[in-house]
Amino acid sequence: MKSIALPAGLWRNSLALFLLPTMLIGIDVHAQTSQTQNVLRAVPKEPELLAAEAAFRLSTRMKDARTAELTFEIAPGYYMYRERFKVEGAGVGKPVIPRGTVKFDPTFNRNMQTHRDSVAFLVPVKGVVPLQLTVTSQGCADAGVCYPPVVQKVVLDGLASSVSSSTQPLERPQTQASPLPSAIAKVSPATKASTEKGGFVRIASGDELDAHFKEAKGITMLDFYADWCGPCKQMEKATFADARVKARMGQFTLVQADVTRNTLENKLLLKRFQLVGPPGIVFFDRAGNEIPGTRVVGFEQPEKFLQSLELAQKAVQPRRF
Fold first, then answer.
1. Given this model, what pLDDT does residue 144 score?
2. Which of 64, 119, 270, 275 has the fewest CB atoms in 10 Å of its CB?
3. Helices of type H across 43-176
4. 184 by DSSP, 3-state: which?
């Protein structure tokens, strides 16, 4: 049987028609991948934050028989609020805390005093050693994250001192996705009614979040907030209130974890997601898995946050074939 020879031009046209769908698929996938990579490059990496004890290192000593001296060594890029210092204990007087740098804080609408580098202050004491003090402090990072109040126990025996803290060092974030329901279910057994605030559903228990998440039909945005967190309030006033941001956020299921009270449940919730404090935003797909590489840690301006929202959406968009 003789083979039929086709003109070279007809072979080329036939081959082109055969390969055209595959070429179009490759172009479409490449375009989507390139677009996602461009957005990813535009979003800054999650800041490397120190544990509270490393950022605000406390040391104590007896200056004399009736005076204790407390010193906080503050890491570069961090600061502490003067008004957040508190020292309690039997026979403990009022701390003499030096004035800090005074500046008007638009977030709190008043003047605030902060300390950087280091701050030392004296505390009048009376009684027989060893003396036990409870020291409460709070600080923030320039990266736009505020730490929850840290409570430390100090024992002074006249020659040396020991310091223990209620806040444990946190491990760095895990890279693998973490299911949302199991992540929260271990935090709080209590169940309370959710309340709406600024379009967010506020959660008070793991069971409540699980129930809410089961009804979510798209991406869930979990926002960590606290009343004492200046960057959180700044996010609300400057970023979430932006018309473009508000419109894009309307495409997400919005959930807010309020850690204002700094309860054990709040601390476990922050630790579960490897956050040192608010603000922190975690995105989850409809199956309850964290979307890798999309976390927002600290304050972001509207333009930057729009990129973060876009990245979260593009990361879960199905590819067209």
1. 87
2. 64
3. 52-55
4. helix
* Tokens 């080329």 belong to residue: 12
Mean pLDDT, range 286-290, rounded to an integer = 84
Predicted confidence (pLDDT) per residue in 12-61, tens digit? 555 455 554 554 445 444 444 444 444 444 445 566 889 999 999 999 99
**What is the domain class of 52-165 according to CATH?**
mainly beta
Say which CATH architecture domain 171-316 belongs to: 3-Layer(aba) Sandwich (3.40)
Q: Over 90: is that where the pLDDT of 120 sits?
A: yes
Question: Which token pair is 267?
Answer: 């601390």
Distance CA 299, CA 87 (A): 30
* Cβ contact 308:296 at 8 Å: yes
Residue 222's alpha-carbon distances to 74, 161, 194, 196, 295, in angstroms, are 30, 41, 14, 14, 10
Average pLDDT of the residues of the chain: 77
Residue 235 CB contacts under 8 Å (≥ 6 apart), including other chains? 279, 299, 300
Distance, in Å, from the CA atom of 177 to the CA atom of 279, rounded to the nearest integer, reads: 20
- Strand-pairing partners, residue 222, are 255, 282
Rounded alpha-carbon distances, angstroms, from residue 254 to 19, 118, 140, 221, 293: 44, 39, 25, 5, 19
Task: Show the beta-strand stretches assigned E in the chain.
Answer: 56-64, 67-74, 78-81, 86-88, 101-105, 110-115, 118-124, 131-137, 139-141, 145-146, 150-156, 161-165, 195-197, 200-203, 220-225, 253-258, 280-284, 296-297
The overall longest dimension of the chain from CA atoms, in Å, is: 114
What pTM value is reported for the model? Answer: 0.70
Q: State the DSSP string of 198-253.
A: TTEEEE-SHHHHHHHHHH--S-EEEEEE-TT-HHHHHIIIIIITSHHHHHHHTTSE
Residue 279 CA, distance from chain mean position: 5
Looking at this protein, which amino acid is placed at residue 302?
P
Residue 302 token pair: 């509207």
Domain locations in the chain as residue ranges = 52-165, 171-316
**pLDDT value of residue 97:** 95
